[in-house]
Amino acid sequence: MDRPTTYDKSSPEAENQAVARVEKHTSLAVSIRALGPNHRERLRKHLLALETADRFLRFGYVATDQQISSYVDRLDFINDAVFGVFNRRLHIVAMAHLAICKSPDHPPVGDFGVSVAPSLRGHGIGGRLYERAALHARNEGVEVLQIQALAENAAMLAIARKRGATVHRHGSESEAYLKLPRPDLESRLRELAGEYWAGLHYSLVAQSRVWVEMLKGFQSVRSRAIAAAKICSP
To answer: Measured between alpha carbons, how far apart are the two ends of the chain, in Å?
Structure first.
């Protein structure tokens, strides 16, 4: 039986750990949203928080803050797809980038990259992002979803291999290829339903945060009024 862990509930890192424990012991699904240009700053914050080793695995080199910022600025939300997982503070704690490469001479190919906050790793979030990206790629007519990763990026390669991808190693790098079926009515409805529920979940969390902040404001005003009444009382 897991032993309880003591943590500071006000810490964002502690919140991520708490969410991870809940998802580990329940059947709750991870809510994954398609992101747009209005999410650039939150994406930038998520990626800049990655440690040196994580940046190396994610980008294939130790990306500097300036290189990460440039990458975020260049994200193409029209032709590509970006997906994110939010915590209760509406911070992005995991993201996936699906770059769709189109050529008049070849079928479109999807290239997948993912990053997950350290405290949420090992709970299947990367795999869920891969499945979400694969579903979108399929519906966009992509025939092959590929991952290009360093050979030591075992987690990334395991995500692809577990879902039927073929992995080839070339020296210090590996490539994973997943053949995607043609889109159909079911695949399109699955994506629409998933995005609808993710949007609904996000709206509920955002609304709950508004109410929490309002209650905090009322409590603060009430506390000051009580304090003032005590000072003024004979």
So the answer is: 57
